[in-house]
Amino acid sequence: MYNRPRIVSLFLNLTLAVWATACGAADHEGGARPLVIRANPNDPWGGRIEDVEKVLHSAAETLWKYFPDRELPPILVAPKGVPITLYERRPTGEIQVRLNTGNRLWAQQAFQFAHEFGHILCNYEPGENRNKWFEESLCELASLFALRRMSETWQTNPPYPNWKDYAPALAKYADERSKATMLAPGTTFVEWYREHAEQLAGEPVNRDRNLIVATMLLPLFEKQSEHWEAVTYLNGDKPRQSETFAVYLNEWHSRCPSKHQGFVEEIARQFAITIPLEIKP
User: Fold this and answer.
1) How many domains does the chain have?
2) Cα–Cα distance, 23 to 35 (Å, whole number)
3) Most CB atoms closer than 10 Å: which of 81, 113, 214, 239?
4) Between residues 278 and 7, which one has the greater pLDDT?
5) pTM of the entire predicted model
């Protein structure tokens, strides 16, 4: 007797591999790098798969264009579960991403996927790291950035002409997330950071706190978007659990090409940290 689930799985793997190869060849012929994102057709998206993939690609492309030297394996996205990018690849090499969305919630889908795509761009890795909150905050920043950019491009170049009217909803979704985590009047970001530094280190995934950091850094990334590429070098070495945030930023700075180092220094200044540090022998 045939094992139907196994046959379906094998067919999906073969289809993804062929599809990725074809897309990659087409992209290389045009001089562009391939970016293959597939919504798993075996999962309950509650909408047309082709529409979902338009949204996922639209979110990713707002960031991807700032990584001219990067190449990525195909990304397979599932709609249900806890939003996460798995460390384990599929047997056929795809990066596995899970969201917690579905139906026609395009803003929510874009927001969640941009966050997970941010982890991919940061070269996410397992292991204890008391500064993991910073990567989480950058990924929340990627979500805000993506939706705000999508709201602009969809006004003139939406995936479908009738989606043009949805553009304001994308910006509204991002703005509502930011406004929900505004600092108390009279509180500076540096004061807030110093008060919550230990909480950030102890609980790296706290969306409210991550969004406060993201909202503070968003203007820098919107004004100097070419420096998104710097996140490629965020996770270069295995971090030490006892590593201070200042040392963490300093090591990121040292791994970055010179063209991005000034930007990392500017990020550090938002936390009242001066890098490069003077390391005593």
Assistant:
1) 1
2) 8
3) 113
4) 278
5) 0.87
